Amino acid sequence: MDFMAEMAELALASRLRRLSDLYWQGVTATYRQSGVDFDVRWATIFVLIARQGPVAVMEIAERLGITHPAVIQVINELEKRDLITSAKSEQDGRKRLLALSETGQAMLPKLQPLWDAFISVNQEMLGNQTHNLLTSLQEMEDQLAKRNFYDRIQDQLNRTK
């Protein structure tokens, strides 16, 4: 048996990371095999910008629930690849608004069939599960939004003293 599976709750974060790594490897290989020069790390931000139109950095961070520095790192890479453009907001000069560049727009038709395949495969795998992973993930995220993991651990440690 898989040792991480044997460790059960102790290895939850490691198993989630391993599952993520398996997905990233498959997606990266698919992009490469399809001749699309795209990094899996860019996908959520790229899709948000493509769907939303001009969007501010802070709004991306809030909508995706990731840090501002993490967003900056990805948008810098997207800008270097000329996949997005950045312009100051007319309403607030402190805000940078991001939109797909012509190169980014031209890449969408190459990416969409791959994304459609990712969705189909995920739907099939989720449909074969007893408990839907997406529902379970949402439930865990909701619990952690109410009280973070560190605070929960501290409570547990204080109860056992």
From TrEMBL:
GO terms for molecular function: DNA-binding transcription factor activity. GO terms for biological process: response to stress. Residues 9-146 form the HTH marR-type domain. It comes from the Bacteria. It holds the Pfam family MarR_2. This is MarR family transcriptional regulator. It comes from Spirosoma foliorum. The lineage of its organism: Bacteria, Pseudomonadati, Bacteroidota, Cytophagia, Cytophagales.
